[in-house]
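Kindly inspect both lines:
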Amino acid sequence: MNRPRETLFERLPTALKLQAFGDCNTEGSEKLPPGECVPTKLQQQLTHLGFDVNLENHGGTMNCSREGLSRSRDNNTAADLVLINYGLVDSWHTSLPQLYVPYYPNGRLSKWGRKVLKSLKRRLRSPWIRKILPVGPVVTLEEFRQNISTIINDVRRRNQESVIMLWSTVPVRGDAARNLLIADYNRCLQSLADEFDCEYFAVESLILNRDEFYLDSVHMNGDGANTVARRMIEALRNHSAGSSSASRAA
C-alpha cells in the first residue's frame, strides 16, 4: 500500500524562518499601516496555526528582479519558506531601458541619479521622440529568468530543503495593455517553478476584477493581502512535495 506523499505544508518546521523578496506588494504600500502586506499576513496566519514564525521581509517599492538579486546576495540567512514576487517593474516599458539606477542599495547618489533620470525620461515621452529612441522593458525576459533562477539557487544554497513559492504579479486595474506585458513575466515565473520544483501561486486568478482587494490601481489592501496569504496556505496544504507546479494555480 502506497503511503501518502508529504505535502509542502507538512515539510515546514514548527520554528519557521519566513523570507520574502519582491516589490511594493511584498513590502506593502506606504499608504497602509505597517504589516498590511502578504508576508506579514502569512506570518500571522501561520502563527495562529501553531508555528513560531520569524519573518524577514526584503520587499521594496519599485524593486525589480535586479534589486531582488542584490538583496539575495546580501542576505546570508537560511529560510524554511521563501516568497518571491517580481515582474511588475521588470515588465514596465520605458524609453532608453538601458539606463537604470537601482533602488537597492538606496544611497544619496542613487536617489540623485534616479531623480535626474526620471526628469530626462519625462522629456522623452512624446510619440515622435519614441519613434527614434529605443523603448523596451526595464528588465528583459531573458535577464528576468536569469535573475530569478539565481535567487532560487541562492535560497537553496543556504537551505536545500527550503519551500519556495513564486507568486505572480498583481494585475493592474484598468490597464489591459500593461497586463498583457505582465502576463509574459508571470508565465516565466510559472516555467521556473516547474524547472526548480517550486510552488507557483497565480494571484491574478484570485483577485482579478475584485476591486475590494485593491487600495489603488496597483497595490493590494489589507483584505487582499490577507486573502492571498490564506490561499497560499491552502496551496501548500494541497500539493505534495516534489509534484509538478503546472497545476498549482490558486
Observations:
- The chain has a mean pLDDT of 91.
